Amino acid sequence: MRLSDPLTFAAGGGEIDRASHLRVRSAALLAGAGARLLPQWRDKALIELAGECPALGWVTPEPGLVAEAHEAPVFLGCYRGAPCFTADFSALDEDTAKTRFGETMKFIDLRSVAGQLSQGEATIVAAAKGVIGWHRIHPFCARCGGASAPEDGGWRRKCSACGALHFPRTDPVVIMLVTRGDPRGDKVLLGRQSVWAPGLYSLLAGFMEPGETIADAVRRETFEETSVRVGRVRFLGSQPWPFPASLMLGCWAEALSEEIVIDDEIEDACWVGRAEMALAFRGEHPRFKAPRADSIARWILTAWVAGEIAEAESA
Ligand SMILES: [Zn+2]
């Protein structure tokens, strides 16, 4: 994995055209030829398991099926020439959900299949999961409490009482490769939370706060969690992480101090060398387990172990 390699959920590059200018016509597109619908159910997406690899469970949005959805389907854009939609079928009971879409199509937690989907499908399902998750928990207006309803192809909600418009939420999270000294330093600052799997260590991360720059948030979160001071910060790349609505902002950060004092948010933090990290990637380290393969933490750490970030930063 290189910094130039695409991240899961982040294919970009025009493979998916959100076609926002077509959102006003989404009802007609949904009823037209070639439209495809990705059903979701209680935070899971429909996955087709008949092929060699899992794929998204696209179905034809027939009127009878659309009528079973919680609200009008959301127009995701055009993918491989077809107008694509997603809708929430959480009202189906568990037994019905298991059989409603046939033998080989199952509702599956995205975390367990995302890394096996194609880049394009992982990216489109990230948007699908994020936007349906937002609709599900925002049925009422945050301003007046009135009922709201989706419009503009599902990309905003309008309050029926006061007319306020509400837009899908994305929560920016900084995640940082904090290295000691300069980018050629051979130690990275890792932490772990008590709820994580035993032995799992990853990059420090935290939600941005209003009024912060990305660099400010990197410095604040690193200091809050470990008391390590950070100087220079460089942006490396970003990844939508729809669990439920994060946007991970990957950064390199230069540590100005080394002593670690952890706070309540994390269970442990430590400096880890390149060779140790490489062992963890191979599953051979006695103490550390590396972050999951589809995460931006793994993408950044892999590039760092390969010396790629040092090269980029010292250029
Ligand atoms: Zn309102």
Spans where pLDDT lies below 50 across 5 or more residues? none
Query: Count of helices?
Result: 9
* Fourth-level CATH superfamily of the largest domain: Nucleoside Triphosphate Pyrophosphohydrolase
Distinct small molecules: zinc ion
Number of strands: 16
- Major β-sheet, in short? 7 strands, mixed
Average predicted confidence as pLDDT: 92
Radius of gyration: 22 Å
Amount of helix: 10-25%
CATH secondary-structure class of the largest domain: Alpha Beta
In CATH, the architecture of the largest domain is Alpha-Beta Complex
Q: What's the number of structural domains?
A: 2
Which structural class best describes the helix and strand composition?
alpha+beta
Which percent range describes the beta-strand content?
25-35%
Secondary-structure element string: EHEEEHEEHEHHEEEEEEHEEEHHH
What do these coordinates show?
The protein is an alpha+beta fold. It has two domains: 16-137, Nucleoside Triphosphate Pyrophosphohydrolase (Alpha-Beta Complex), CATH 3.90.79; 171-314, Nucleoside Triphosphate Pyrophosphohydrolase (Alpha-Beta Complex). It has nine helices and 16 strands. It has helices at residues 26-31, 63-66, 94-99, 110-113, 119-137, 214-226, 274-281, 296-305, 308-314; strands spanning 16-17, 36-41, 44-48, 55-56, 74-79, 82-88, 105-108, 148-151, 156-159, 165-166, 171-180, 187-192, 202-207, 230-241, 246-255, 268-273. Strands 1, 2, 3, 4, 5, 6 and 7 form a seven-stranded mixed β-sheet that branches. A hairpin with a 2-residue loop joins strand 2 and strand 3 (44-48). Helix 7 (274-281) packs across helix 8 (296-305). It is globular. The protein starts with 15 loop residues before the first strand and ends with a helix. The mean pLDDT is 92. Zinc ion binds next to loops. Zinc ion (ZN) binds at residues 141, 143-144, 146, 159, 161-162, 164.
